[in-house]
């Protein structure tokens, strides 16, 4: 399939790096931090209990579903409060979380492929998560980063895709959104008028009832190869 692409919006978690190892690291880092700085909190909220507290914060605050940072702070605040800890520990605890959250391990193909893609077309990060590309060290490869928190609504709502297109200065039909999630990434983007590329690393079955992805690859390298093989389909950064 060949069609003109002038820019790409790119999901982060489970597209450039797997999130599961990050989540496990966060749980351990926070528990170790509490053991050192607030043992009563660590005792009352071991890792499983802290996860339950975070899940309850999510359920109880649907108006914050687009803001995972706020939800994390709420859970930490509740844990500190319930265990009688000093409220001033909230921000240092959050910083311990955020540092661990931004320690990523790329998929083996991802960083090289990202560099190749970014050399050919402008790439904008578009994520519901709270990764910080400056901390991670790859912000220079992106035109900008737009998160659900900053936008005020999360994928798959059309407005976040349209906001990214507007900042890119490219019409939605000439923007390719790339991600791992069928609904939030590919179907959401296509319903908003963008092209959709599914990165299907797990050999899953496409199950959307009415849409089919414009492109599908099992690695990000597949997309970089497609762009190289279809030079007429993509505009260079200098174009």
Automatic annotation (TrEMBL):
Transmembrane segments: none
Highest taxon above the source species: Bacteria
Single GO MF descriptor: hydrolase activity
Keywords on record: Hydrolase
InterPro entries reported in the protein's UniProt record: HAD-like_sf (IPR036412), HAD-SF_hydro_IA (IPR006439), HAD_sf (IPR023214), S-2-haloacid_dehalogenase (IPR051540)
NCBIfam families linked: HAD-SF-IA-v1
Protein name: HAD-IA family hydrolase
Source organism (scientific name): Stenotrophomonas lacuserhaii
């Amino acid at each position: 399939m060949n069609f003109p692409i002038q820019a790409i919006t790119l999901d982060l978690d489970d597209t450039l790096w797997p999130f599961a190892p990050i989540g496990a690291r966060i749980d351990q880092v926070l528990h170790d931090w509490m053991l050192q700085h607030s043992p009563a909190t660590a005792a009352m909220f071991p890792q499983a209990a802290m996860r339950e507290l975070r899940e309850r914060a999510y359920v109880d605050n649907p108006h914050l579903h687009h803001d995972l940072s706020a939800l994390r702070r709420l859970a930490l605040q509740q844990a500190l409060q319930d265990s009688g800890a000093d409220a001033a520990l909230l921000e240092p605890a959050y910083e311990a979380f955020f540092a661990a959250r931004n320690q990523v391990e790329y998929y083996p193909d991802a960083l090289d492929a990202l560099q190749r893609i970014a050399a050919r077309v402008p790439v904008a990060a578009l994520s519901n998560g709270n990764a910080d590309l400056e901390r991670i060290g790859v912000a220079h490869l992106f035109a900008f980063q737009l998160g659900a928190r900053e936008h005020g609504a999360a994928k798959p709502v059309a407005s976040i895709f349209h906001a990214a297109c507007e900042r890119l200065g490219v019409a939605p039909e000439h923007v390719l959104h790339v991600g791992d999630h069928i609904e939030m990434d590919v179907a959401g983007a296509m319903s908003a008028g963008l092209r959709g590329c599914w990165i299907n690393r797990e050999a899953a079955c496409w199950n959307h009832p009415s849409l089919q992805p414009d492109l599908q690859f099992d690695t990000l390298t597949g997309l970089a190869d497609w762009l190289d093989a279809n030079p007429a389909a993509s505009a260079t950064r200098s174009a």
